[in-house]
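Newbie here. two chains, one complex. Structure please?
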Amino acid sequence: MLLVEANFVIGTIWERRPSLIYLTSFCQRYGVTIVIPEIALAEARASLLARIDRQLNALQQLRQWLNDIARAAEMGGLVKSAKQRLDAIEAELQKRKISVQDAIDTFVKACTVASITPQIWTRAYVRWKASLPPFKELDCLVFETLMDFLRRHKAPLTMFLTTDAEDFDHPEIHEAFRQRKALMLLDPYDVIVEFRKFYGVA
Amino acid sequence: MTMPRKSPKVTDGKNHENRLKEIRQFLLKEPEEVDLSNDEFIQKLLSPFADFPIEVTRRWAEEWREEHRRGR
């Protein structure tokens, strides 16, 4: 079982990191469960779509300026042709947005999404308020979601891969995963090595 | 006279062995050595930004991480 967070999705889709693509393909081919906390998935989805939404908003702004120009400068004809170009750009951006949503949906189908419950939310809030690692609000939610998931699900090999060492690489966090018979690893290649050991390839 | 049926256990055992062999073959390769150009699942994940230069999308990822670092 491989537990991941938003960096895994961003690292695969945006950065096209070979080790992450390799792990994603390996898990999907051979039925290794990838677990992603609901909040991490929402964060990744929002980030991947944010740039396109920003461009769509910019287009909307451009249309308003063009309307002003058409009225004030009496350039209705020219503005109309400019708007036709904007329509083409918008259609392209919408197409891209759908393709991002499809990609995320495809990823989700191959994953188990660990849901947030009010109890998890409360524990994460207390952890965050008490300034306990991983310190940030979102990361506390990710951490508590995974802890809750691991209380209820076991696998012969369980690893949590995060590339966010700054927030997660603390002895308390390592210990919490160890107590739940899981390893926290900060480098995708270390995960590959663990899989190799598990399957007797190392 | 009917032919004796194969024991399902033997077939399952063979399938398991073959699968294990396949898994090991995959794991023996380094990430850069695996050809995933025909892997539909991976290609669907990569398709939205496949035409973007990698430096651009990597910069976006860095900017996203920087935003996360500055978050509370």
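Moderator note: Chain A is about 70% helix and 10% strand. The radius of gyration of chain A is 22 Å. Thread marked as resolved.
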